[in-house]
Amino acid sequence: MTARVPAQFAGDLNELVSVEKSGSASHPRAHSGFTMTTIAHAQELFRRADAVCFDVDSTVIREEGIDELAKFCGVGDAVTEMTRNAMGGSVSFHTALSERLSIIKCSREQVNKLITDHPPQLTTGIKELVEKLHQRNVKVFLISGGFRCIVEHVASQLNIPLHHVYANRLKFYFNGEYAGFDESQPTAQTGGKGTVIRMLKEQYGFENIVMIGDGATDLEACPPASAFIGFGGNVVRQQVKEKSSWYVTSFGELLKELEKI
């Protein structure tokens, strides 16, 4: 999934990785295309999952990475509302991402410093849940509309292989100034998380993949995901809550479900 970067670019945020390393509510309705319609069915699919894919911002971590970057660059107010609209599904994800980044225009140095000074905070219970899934030989993936350098930092804390990370890449000129983002990545497009899940099914032969997340871009990933679990532990998005067959507000609820086996 690595795209070639034009010669005028110094590279993407993969370079930053080396720097880094040196009670639940529910609703019975399902959105169009859902293969599951009940909490019980969703729970069963989760218990039997071959792979579990997590959204990152406001799910695996407490914050929205792009909002934190915007605040760090002094344009937080202008970007936060756009993020809310993107996660609520009122605008296309690609449009929202492009517009927000055009406002932020972060430098490589700013992104580096954000990760150093304000590392992403894991949501309570996620480390234990991922450990439990790994113990059961369930493959865990992070599929994010956020930025790869931040998501890889999160993956390393959770012992998730970096080749199980799918996220967006920022581009920079040789002087470190912002030069856009890699639009060839599926996670940069509307419906991109579903595209990644289809790729995972083809690559690994998974029959049962569960998607967990807080936003509209996660909800749209089912299908091709076998089940979608809405997560409201950090932020509640009404559209997601209403259209999730199983909606949880803590990862402890998912751990309890695994303990039934």
TrEMBL record:
Give a GO cellular-component term: cytoplasm
What's its catalytic activity? O-phospho-D-serine + H2O = D-serine + phosphate; O-phospho-L-serine + H2O = L-serine + phosphate
Q: In which pathway does it act?
A: Amino-acid biosynthesis; L-serine biosynthesis; L-serine from 3-phospho-D-glycerate: step 3/3
Task: Look up the EC number in the record and give it.
Answer: 3.1.3.3
- Tell me, what is an example of a GO biological process annotation in this record? L-serine biosynthetic process
Q: Name the domain of life.
A: Eukaryota
Cofactor field: Mg(2+)
Question: Pfam families under this entry?
Answer: Hydrolase
Which residues catalyse the reaction?
55 (nucleophile), 57 (proton donor)
The family assignment reads: Belongs to the HAD-like hydrolase superfamily. SerB family.
Q: Which PANTHER family match?
A: PHOSPHOSERINE PHOSPHATASE
Protein name from the UniProt record: Phosphoserine phosphatase
